[in-house]
Amino acid sequence: MPWSFRPHSMSLAVAGLVALAALPVLAGPPSDATRQAARASLQEWIDVLALPNDANVPADIQKNVAWFAKAFERRGFAVSQLANGDKPMLLATQTPAAGNRKTVLFYAHLDGQAVKPEEWQQSSPWKATLKQRTADGRWAELPIERLQGEKIDPEWRVFARSSSDDKAPIVMLLAALDALKAEGREAGVDIKVLLDSEEEKGSPTLGRVIGENLQALQADAMVVLDGPMHASNRPTLVFGNRGVAQATLTVYGASQELHSGHYGNYAANPAQSLARLLASMKDDEGRVLVKGYYDGIELDSQARAVMQAVPDDEAALRRRLGIAQAESVGGSYQESMQYPSLNVRGLQSAEVGPKARTVIPATAVAEIDMRTVPETPPERLEKLLRAHIEAQGFHLTEGAPSADERARHPRLATLKMGGVSASGSAVRTPLDAPVGQWLRRGMDRAWGSAPVQIRMMGGTVPTGAAVQALGIPFVIVPLVNADNNQHSFNENMRLGNYFDGVHSLVNMLAEPF
Amino acid sequence: MPWSFRPHSMSLAVAGLVALAALPVLAGPPSDATRQAARASLQEWIDVLALPNDANVPADIQKNVAWFAKAFERRGFAVSQLANGDKPMLLATQTPAAGNRKTVLFYAHLDGQAVKPEEWQQSSPWKATLKQRTADGRWAELPIERLQGEKIDPEWRVFARSSSDDKAPIVMLLAALDALKAEGREAGVDIKVLLDSEEEKGSPTLGRVIGENLQALQADAMVVLDGPMHASNRPTLVFGNRGVAQATLTVYGASQELHSGHYGNYAANPAQSLARLLASMKDDEGRVLVKGYYDGIELDSQARAVMQAVPDDEAALRRRLGIAQAESVGGSYQESMQYPSLNVRGLQSAEVGPKARTVIPATAVAEIDMRTVPETPPERLEKLLRAHIEAQGFHLTEGAPSADERARHPRLATLKMGGVSASGSAVRTPLDAPVGQWLRRGMDRAWGSAPVQIRMMGGTVPTGAAVQALGIPFVIVPLVNADNNQHSFNENMRLGNYFDGVHSLVNMLAEPF
Fold first, then answer.
1. What are A139-193's pLDDT values in tens digits?
2. In this complex, do A351 and B346 lie within 8 Å of one another by their Cβ atoms?
3. Chain A residues with CB inside 8 Å of B324's CB?
4. CA pair distance A451, A440, nearest whole angstrom
5. Per the CB < 8 Å rule, is A347 touching B345?
6. What architecture (CATH level 2) is domain B243-297+339-421?
7. What is the pTM of this model?
8. Strand boundaries in A351-410, DSSP class E
9. ipTM confidence
10. Is the domain B23-241+426-510 a CATH 3.10.105.10 member?
């Protein structure tokens, strides 16, 4: 996630709006039981971090499944492995279910990104390593036994693959269950947990696996425990994510590369034609000019208040990105993410650099990705894009144009859509959906203030497939520090976030839906 | 050269205009002496084709220089090797000079393109191979001795590296000298011959070598014996060629590639910005919109008549290129070549195809070439292009922008000009210059009709350096068939063109300047 902002205080008026009329609750610090359960869970976390979990190695995935199965069984859950080739997913169901409560399905994933151990500043990415930041900004190792000591500094971090993405949230959930049990409290909801085994590969099978286990997975809402919190490190709820659709646009010139001397000024240049075509699609400020592209998107005052309350520091963001100003699709970063994008992700025609030759290229290609929102499904955007290209005088062919098509049409192009899978779908839960209200109440109880609420994150997460298959609302509840280096080397989890997350989860789970 | 047209007849009215009031002359067929000299020269041609002449192998170049030195010495020329590292050029000067006549410097080159022998359909590219086209369009070998026989079919061809480019024209010139001598006729001009040794490498040293030998090379005009004739295969004179200047245009986005989900709609995309910038440079019909780009170019009625008389078959050309219509820079192919071009010869931003990722690229690059005409030197076009880019709101930096430049300017780009050497200069001789009149008279005498006259060819030839250094007018007199496969494998020379060319040269040389 992109945020790198500093927290700022929110006006009470906006906070009221944003809290969406939640009942006042009395927030309290973590209970002793929560503290103890969280501390006790650290050893389990370290143990499971020792298990490699690259989804390319089925045997490793199976070991992780077995480990988590036991951990949930110990807490009285019924577990089953959901068939998925040689990389089963894990379903854990709280028993006995109370029956008269709502059921929440927690989604997380036990697989992790591949590693290159030589990049890591520790003996192994599979050996949890405790580190403390030194005065000069480096990370210095501490004995891992310090986690058993009296004082744990919230600024310490545990470094390991999947320390944050995504094993910590699962173990934090285990700790929260332990805390509730230690206090003799009932959860406010029935709990199911689904652990994906191929999330880092884009969850290619998630929709199918869910479809095959609809009954077992039935729930009233899904809570996704994944991803980083807002960069302000304040408790965060994410209500939606954009989808993604891809297209390849090819513009054709002459039937082969031409000598730019003999034909320059005579045969049209496809790179130039493509440039003109792309230029026609967006205005100077980044707004898409394709007719109807933004149709159906409306941001009411509630949505605007929620977006405005997000403590983004856009000046710092622009500084970090190295840009003097943002595009004008939305009036703010948050608003910009509410609209579909039209992005040239790659461009090529003939060669640049030392391999460039003085030719008129024969073709020019733009790779495009469109981040979709629920109002703008890929099929509609494709139709609009086609109509736009044709309105610019291009004749669209299926593949490379034939001699006959070349003779008849001065402008020729193809538009080929990439396969759009459900895991690339845009999904959004209404801000006032019951699951959102429930989560806000839990967060309010834990922290005494409204969480950062993201109406729509810009990126795409593969849970769209789950949401569509189950037909239930979802909210992402990220619990890990934004600067956790996920997907990269030196992935880490801040211990303060670990303890805060357990506190959030305890209050969530205790709250009646 | 590009032409692939069929001949068509020219109206007498246009022919008159085009002949530029040449005196009526009596055309005649080749004399017996011409025929005999041409036939006798075939063996010399075959001999010299056996000498490899890749300019990357100095020893081979030296052998060719020695061979041509002897050939000219035998004809009473004084020869000298002009110092040029280990690849000397050859100067041959007719002696004694008449003194009261104009001097014409013939330029040709003795080096050839590198070969890949395995691509050639003959035992060696260095073994002249006689071939005849079969009924089904293939080329069948004939015994090379057939060239000594009674009947030589003008459609036969000799295949070898440099058979056409550019040894044939030199040997044809030798044959024309022999023919004149056999007839006891005086040449109408004093003759100098300069043989370049690095033309296929772009004549990087030609300007310097000429500068060091100005006195010895002094002449009233230069005639370039190189390049293919008009595709109609009619006698051809070329009065000018466009130059070439190169530029690399880079547009900058954020300081690194960004996730297209998290930042799409927020951080401007440099590929999109580049597209908009390129689109602003040309209109839909290919005309350059950069202010002042075409300033100073005027085509008078004489120029228009000459262009119109060129027997181009543009419908066939468009068919061959696979384009439905031409750009509108000029009303015809010939007119289009009278203007500078602005050509995107390469385009790249991030990646396309399987390597494409969902990113907002950090940079986008367009490689540009501008074919210049004498009215539009590269320095002026660069200035206009810079002004245009700045007028579109871009701040031009010297290299990659600094953090400070990034903070201050929303649109950033660099424009880096490629080194423009004199060998890439545009040059043009006035159509009514004395050398042109002289050549037309010779052609008229040989053929009884005006030659095809190209005011300006679209491509660039490296003789610009020679023309600039010597400060004399030049005309290109191509003598070889347009379909000679020059620079490629199976290079060949049509024997009809060989004999016709000798006839043209005899009549040129005999004509008083």
1. 999 999 999 998 999 999 999 999 999 999 999 999 999 999 999 998 999 999 9
2. yes
3. 406-410
4. 7
5. no
6. 2-Layer Sandwich (3.30)
7. 0.88
8. 359-360, 363-372, 395-396
9. 0.89
10. no
